[in-house]
Design goal:
Structural class of chain A: mainly alpha
Strand content of chain A: under 5%
Oligomer: heterotrimer
CATH architecture of the largest domain in chain B: Up-down Bundle
Shape of chain A: elongated
CATH topology of chain A: Helix Hairpins
Number of strands of chain A: 0
Number of domains of chain B: 2
Distance between the termini of chain A: 58 Å
Strand content of chain B: under 5%
CATH topology of the largest domain in chain B: Four Helix Bundle (Hemerythrin (Met), subunit A)
Helix content of chain A: over 70%
CATH class of chain A: Mainly Alpha
Number of helices of chain A: 3
Radius of gyration of chain A: 17 Å
Structural class of chain B: mainly alpha
Largest interface: A-B, 73 and 88 residues
Chains: A mainly alpha, B mainly alpha, C mainly alpha
Helix content of chain B: over 70%
């Protein structure tokens, strides 16, 4: 018998996806994969928002998701541009080799 | 009933693809899995009666943003041996502890909050008209601001990626 | 009209101050002089206007703008007979001195700076006398103090002169502080600083004590500005400035601000006999004390400086006994003859290329005939020889003093005799006898502009007394006391005196006889025997030493006030400043450096470490939320 699915399930799923994203950000060396993990985190939050929008019967949550997608698009554009110029200077996309901000 | 079945299928698919994204050696493969994850999420949105979001999830995320990623990967020469053989960075232990604590606390909190188990079957969700009305009335100013943000991002992207 | 009086000197200051360096020297001089002259012409026009209107109408009040509405402080000007007279003196004598300066300072490289200061001074002084508000008056008061400082230290390359400027500023500061406290008291007691409102406001009997306090504090302020005991020490040192400055600021105008202030606020002084007594006493004591110090000074300007303090003492004596118009009369005539004396002395100094020691002068009569004549006029005026201006004003003060208290008269006469002695001594040593300086050749008489202003001032010193001819001499001069009538509407009440013919004539006779006898005796003695002073010096060596060293007052002040301040400053420097403050600051710097070195390790440049920080931060927030649930 399949258990009945409630809001908690959606939120737990969102938390799990978020954690996977955090894992990617914390552990991966490749800058592009880190970026993808960030997108994953953003999407997990979107999922939570949509679920809560449904729960509260209010469309505001969906509007928020819309804005988050816009910001994500902007962030991806700028971020990838930074990756390109970094790669052009350092010939690498490994984060542990990029530490020019070291104090 | 169908709702639950669809949820379990899509959730499994989504988490599986997400794990592959962070586990894969080759970023191009990761990107493909990420598209899969996004598609599963779009299905979940449909399941939550948000068809508009499901549509833009597919168009913008799975379409535009992922294409951007793939383009960038093609621009860069990613077949560096070190990148392929050392996926993870050191040190691992403190990060793992922090991450473990994080996921545990998050789930505890969600479970501690008493959400009603059943989703209201009757609700039909919101139509595109409703969302658009809201977007152009209550959220008109933030909406206009996002256009500015996109413009800035565009200019920023051009300036950063331009060769000196 | 009133603002025009103020506007032109201010304009002159701005033009000369901002653009003066780029203008040719002639233009600078013309702007400097013309601005004051326009003011003078305006004031003269107003005087004619006043004379034509009936007595009750001789007052103009103009409110330019609101300044501090919360305190009810407006920038408002008031012209009445008293301030008009002062304005005429300031701009009239001021103009002549500007004219004189155009020649005297010709060679100076910073002529524009000089003229801009001079115009600023004129502006501030006019503001002081025209202010209808004590706060505005205070601004003028401070403004003249500032200009005085700037002009005393005009040749600031010489540290001694810069030092003199500082001394004047600091001593004035003591008086100004008292003045400021008085302003606070006035505001808390009466709720306004407007002079016109204060004049008509009722004083409850219970407020008399506060009022005595106020008037006393105001007088301390006047002591600082008008160089009375105990705050007179700055004025002799102020002679470090250019001579025309000494004439304008330290003889004719600024130092009389205290007298003006007392006359302006006479309605309070009349209610507080204690302060009046203090003023009269301080006045007469200062008159005698500084006259005695002038007796054996050898610096031509120092003698004149001490004589200025002494004459100011007479003015304070007059206002202190309630004879306000007599005090103002002496203020005016003193402005004429003291400006003349200073300018003539400046002419001598100019001719001798900066020599100021009268022991080294002598026999200048034939070399500088014009200067000799005008100096003679000045001397005759100051010693009170009829019909020179000083005679009328000094005699009036002495006559009032006699009626108040004969002791004041005796002391006043004694002071007048000392004045006669030192002035005639100065005159004789400078212009008669044999020349005692080696380089006798390059002597040159005053250039045209200097000569012109000297002649005009000499005429004023001669005829200035006619504005205040005493009633008893009506038969002789066919003129009544113009000044007293003119000033009458301003003062609520003055010292009433009955003009009894005999005693007034008698006193007048005694004064003239004794003064002229002293003058003649001094002249003959010093003329015949220049070394006579040396003779006296040996005979009364102790007294001479004390007088010559000015009673060691400066040394005393140094010992009592300056040394403790210096010592405590040194203490504070060593322990508080170097130890505590510097220690704290250096300690803070070290802590910052050390913590920076430590925290630098966190800043390793690795994004993932930063991301870990983010995760840990989020953990903290989650823990907090969780603790709210549990």
């Amino acid at each position: 018998m399949i258990p009945t699915v409630g809001y908690s399930h959606y939120l737990i799923l969102s938390a799990v996806l978020f954690t996977i994203g955090v894992f990617g950000v914390l552990f991966r060396r490749n800058l592009i994969i880190i970026f993808m993990s960030i997108e994953l985190m953003l999407n997990s939050v979107n999922l939570a928002l949509v679920a809560i929008s449904k729960f509260t019967q209010s469309p505001d949550g969906q509007i928020f998701v819309f804005f988050v997608i816009t910001v994500a698009a902007a962030e991806a554009a700028v971020g990838l541009a930074i990756v390109i110029s970094l790669f052009r200077n350092k010939q690498t996309t490994a984060v542990d080799e990029i530490n020019i901000m070291k104090g | 009933m169908w709702h639950s079945i669809i949820f379990w299928i899509l959730a499994t698919l989504c988490v599986g693809c997400a794990l592959c994204v962070v586990w894969q050696k080759n970023p191009v493969v990761s990107a493909v899995f990420l598209v899969g994850s996004f598609l599963a999420l779009a299905g979940l949105y449909l399941n939550l009666s948000a068809p508009f979001l499901a549509a833009i999830q597919i168009i913008i995320y799975a379409g535009a943003i992922m294409v951007l990623f793939v383009f960038v990967m093609m621009l860069l020469d990613l077949h560096h041996p070190l990148d392929l053989y050392f996926r993870f960075t050191k040190p691992k232990l403190p990060k793992a502890i922090a991450l473990g604590l994080f996921v545990w606390l998050l789930c505890t909190l969600i479970l501690a909050t008493a959400f009603p188990l059943a989703l209201p079957e009757s609700s039909q969700g919101f139509t595109i008209t409703q969302i658009a009305t809201l977007l152009f009335s209550k959220y008109a100013f933030p909406f206009e601001l996002t256009s500015l943000l996109l413009l800035v991002a565009m200019v920023g992207g051009v300036v950063l990626a331009k060769k000196k | 009209m009133l603002s025009a009086l103020l506007l032109f000197p201010l304009l002159g200051f701005l033009i000369n101050g901002l653009l003066g360096r780029r203008l040719p020297k002639v233009a600078v001089s013309i702007i400097g002089c013309a601005s004051v002259f326009i003011s003078f012409a305006t004031a003269f026009y107003l005087l004619i206007d006043f004379l034509q209107s009936p007595e009750g109408w001789r007052e103009i009040t103009v409110t330019l703008f609101q300044w501090i509405p919360l305190l009810g402080v407006d920038v408002s000007l008031k012209l009445d007979s008293l301030s008009l007279l002062l304005v005429l003196v300031i701009t009239g004598v001021g103009f002549l001195i500007h004219l004189y300066s155009a020649n005297y300072m010709e060679e100076d490289p910073s002529l524009a700076r000089y003229f801009s200061y001079l115009n600023l001074f004129t502006f501030a002084m006019l503001l002081l006398v025209l202010a209808n508000n004590l706060l505005l008056l205070f601004i003028g008061w401070e403004g003249v103090g500032l200009c005085s400082y700037l002009l005393i230290g005009f040749w600031f390359e010489d540290p001694e002169k810069a030092q003199a400027g500082k001394k004047a500023f600091l001593v004035n500061r003591i008086g100004d502080l008292a003045f400021l406290i008085a302003l606070f008291l006035i505001f808390t007691t009466f709720g306004t600083l407007n002079i016109s409102s204060l004049k008509i406001s009722e004083v409850a009997p219970g407020q008399l004590q506060t009022l005595t306090m106020i008037t006393f504090l105001l007088f301390i302020g006047a002591c600082g500005k008008s160089a009375q005991i105990p705050l007179y020490v700055w004025l002799p040192d102020a002679m470090a400035g250019p001579t025309p400055v000494s004439a304008l600021i330290h003889a004719a105008t600024m130092v009389t601000a205290g007298v003006y202030m007392v006359a302006r606020l006479h309605f309070w002084y009349l209610l507080t006999p204690f302060s009046m007594t203090v003023i009269a006493t301080v006045g007469i004591v200062t008159a005698l004390f500084s006259a005695s110090m002038a007796l054996f000074q050898n610096d031509i300007k120092k003698v004149l400086a001490y004589s200025t303090i002494s004459q100011l003492g007479y003015m304070f004596l007059a206002v202190g006994i309630g004879a306000f118009s007599a005090g103002i009369f002496h203020l005016i005539t003193h402005a004429f003859f003291k400006a003349l004396l200073f300018l003539a002395a400046g002419s001598v100094i100019h001719a001798l290329h900066g020599e100021q020691d009268i022991q080294k002068m002598g026999n200048l009569k034939s070399k500088l005939p014009l200067t000799h004549i005008v100096f003679l006029f000045g001397v005759l005026a100051i010693i009170g020889c009829p019909p020179f201006s000083g005679f009328f004003s000094k005699d009036e003060i002495l006559w009032f003093a006699f009626n108040k208290n004969p002791l004041f008269w005796v002391l006043g006469l004694l002071g007048a005799l000392m004045t006669t002695f030192y002035m005639v001594r100065l005159f004789t040593l400078v212009f008669y006898g044999s020349a005692r300086k080696e380089s006798k050749d390059h002597l040159h008489e005053a250039p045209p502009l200097m000569a012109l202003s000297l002649i005009l001032l000499a005429l004023l010193s001669l005829g200035g007394g006619l504005i205040g001819v005493p009633h008893s001499l009506y038969a002789f001069f066919k003129m009544d006391n113009f000044l007293e009538h003119f000033l009458n509407p301003v003062f609520i009440r003055q010292l009433e005196i009955i003009h009894e013919g005999f005693s007034e004539y008698g006193l007048m006779f005694i004064t003239i006889t004794v003064t002229l006898a002293t003058a003649l005796w001094t002249f003959l003695t010093f003329h015949k025997h220049q070394g006579w002073a040396e003779h006296l010096k040996i005979k009364f060596s102790k007294a001479h030493t004390v007088l010559f060293n000015k009673y060691y007052i400066d040394e005393l002040y140094t010992f009592i006030f300056v040394m403790p301040v210096k010592k405590s400053s040194e203490f504070l420097l060593r322990f508080l400043d170097k130890g505590a403050i510097d220690g704290t600051l250096h300690g803070l710097g070290k802590i910052t450096t050390l913590s920076g070195t430590g925290l630098k390790l966190l800043q390793n440049g690795n994004i993932q470490t930063y991301a870990l920080g983010l995760v840990i931060g989020t953990l903290g927030i989650l823990l907090y939320v969780w603790s709210m649930f549990a």
